[in-house]
Amino acid sequence: MTEPLLSIRDLRTVFHTDEGLVRAVDGVSFDVGRGETVCLVGESGSGKTVTGESITRLIRTPPGEVADGQIVFDGRDLATLADDDLRDPELERDIAVLRGDRIAHVFQNPQGALNPVYTVGWQIVEAILLHEDLPKAEARARGVDLLDRVGIPEATRRFDDYPHEFSGGMKQRVALAMALATNPDLLIADEPTTALDVTIQNQILGLLGELQDEFDMSILLITHDLGVVAEVADRVVVMYAGKVMERGDVFDVFERPSHPYTRALLDCLPGRGDAGARSIGGKLPPPTDPPDGCRFHPRCEHAVDACRRGEQPPDYAVDGDDDHVVSCVHYEPGGDPSVVRGEEAVPADGGRPVGGDAEDEGDDG
Amino acid sequence: MTRPLLDVDGLVKQYPVTEGVLRNEVGRVRAVDGVSFTVDRGETLGLVGESGCGKSTTATTALRLEEPTDGRVVFDGEDVTAYDDKALKRFRRRAQMVFQDPTSSFDPRMSIGESVAEPLRVHGMRDRERRRRIVGDLLERVGLDAADVDRYPHEFSGGQKQRVGLARALVINPDLIVADEPVSALDVSVQADILDLIERLQAEFGLAIVVISHDMGVVREVCDRVAVMYLGEIVETAPTERLFEDPQHPYTRALLGSTPVADPRRRGRGTKLTGDVPSPSDPPPGCRFHTRCPEVIPDEAYDLDAETWRAVLNLRLRAASQGVDVEAVRTYAAADDGAGAADPDAVRAAIREEFDLPPTLPDARAEEALSGALDRIVAGDVDGAADRLAEAFPTVCRRERPGLVPEGTDLSADEWAAIKSLRAWIATLVDADESAVTDRLERRCADDRDRDGIDRLAVRAAFRLPEPLSDSDAERSVGAAIDALLAGRADAAADELYEAFGPLRESACHLNRD
Predict the structure, then answer these.
(1) CB B63, CB B27: distance < 8 Å
(2) Is the pLDDT of residue B334 over 90?
(3) Domain region containing B472
(4) Do B191 and A270 touch (CB under 8 A)?
(5) Interface membership of A262 toward B (CB under 8 Å)
(6) How far is A278 from chain B (nearest CA, A)?
(7) Which one is predicted more confidently, B455 or B112?
């Protein structure tokens, strides 16, 4: 495998609040390959949005801080860039150039991403000119082209319309056009379809796939909706309370969900017709005082003593597949995953730890 | 008892669109446009649809939180639309609403106990201790602790707040609860809990519940029956499992097909609807869904498949509404060619490409009409092209507005609507004595024509019921009901009609008519 476009290792982002230190992201590692779609999935409070914002340093500092870890984007460590000296204008500019130029962000609420007092065309041209020195007319032509490519009918005419003249789905298309203005390598889409109706969501998800091929970019999609994940992801990262619970190829994760949390999350989807939805009992641990051991153990029906001690368990390979890893003691060498999966016992002796919290796992696959 | 708790008939809610300082009315938003449904005791009805389809407005006008523009709402034998303030307050005690956002539906400065007890106070329970006891008991029944009465909203999570919201709705022991998107503000992991709770409370209190949701999964989880709404109208109602297994209306199919499924092997199989929901201030003529419908009915004169027909119609609709920007297409085509100016053929080809039209349509006559229209577009005459397309490519979906037709009968949409409105009218009289029934009947029939006595024909004329109806079973029931009514026995008439036309499966689509 060639080197991934984005490689996050042991990322820790904290917030200094009056109630104490909130470890919103507490040792998260994953990769995003070139041209790949990776979905970060989890409930609210799982740290998925903060992970995305840490990459482009949209975290408000203070109170937030990327405390530790590596964010290697195309061979450069953004986290060290950030650490060195916040006041260094050179580095600040580097980050700014990366953000928006090579890494673009799209947010949940397209309304908030667009300025209501300027036409959408003006805003797209601004995005283009910020990153590239072009004659105005050329920037405009490119803006129209972008609107056209994100599927806005009559792009030439709609170019000088104001955001309020667009529907929600159309606004999200405009936001996408702005994000794509600089031909980014990585698009971070944070709940891009959550505010939209399902029929429109379907259009936008389809569009994301088309644009990915056309612009040859990687997508980090942050969502709480497992249906959306199943629809678009190549790989999935399941987060809970600041930690990664399970990580793997989308087919592996959906067909052999291995972490009790992933399984519970799938079980609580309403309306699948069969057994009926089962909710996860209990609630998210307090962010200032997470439990010892596995973060999920207070709500886990398979929790044993080993789950309640020490740190979050390391990543263990599922069925000997190093690309599909799970942070659960039942998968440690000699453990019995059937406790969780409730199927005929598959011996876990192939399950050696893959990349601990601090280890590098660049050699997998 | 066969009579439903709630019978909504032909409900309409319009909002005026005003302009200028004088607030001249320049148009009307038809948020709810003739919606009819019934809810039985102990039944959960789902109202489902995309945002802006009028599902929330339907609920708020049915409960008279907003004044309906037209229509009748019958609640347990009384006409809610005719209530005065006092009767309305009494009605509020029996019909409660739970809102989507549990955070903004509580006063942050009131303790949970105070908030939940407020309806009791409003409705006149002065005994503070008793209020507290009731609230404590109810909090336990929704899965909280009686000691929580003194805590404040911010101390609760979203799911817990929604539980409190349910407790507040239940505290005055209502018969009907309308839950507007009860779980959409919650994480999936707690959604199931709340849905579960709703089901349990329903069984425990024998409630009728209307659940409004945009989420087909939620609806499937809790509802007994579902009504699917699009642009202010109900397009289909059916028992939940039948709706999911055998959807009759193309919009229902599209909605189900668009809902992402947590199974990556089924990705890309969803229905892709083109376009946005049209504005309710200017709904399309005919079937309101025809502008996006993937199954829009081709004209019999042509031999075209549904997809090509959809593409042709998209061009037709665009030419007629927003116009086609020829200059942009020309620039685009020129840029593609690298030539200075695109030749007309390239422009025509670019338009076809934009609308997913094949280079030539398989049907010769259709191709002739299409290329004629394209020529006009290239010549700059978009309006002319629009006319040409409209003339050449008619569709019954745009020409005629399909009404709801009940499954398993031969009734026409108009007949069915007339039966429902007769039924709802009779339902308001079930508690009246013979002379009152006759009196009301006389007044009702007098509206339509002068006659000496009231007879079957007069009733049928007043309610626009043709004689005989196209369905013989329906004819028998309606005839019997009218006879009972003429005898002054409205309750028997209502029972007859509700018995014969219980919650039938309905759908409004030309496809389902043979």
Answers:
(1) no
(2) no
(3) 405-509
(4) yes
(5) no
(6) 6
(7) B112
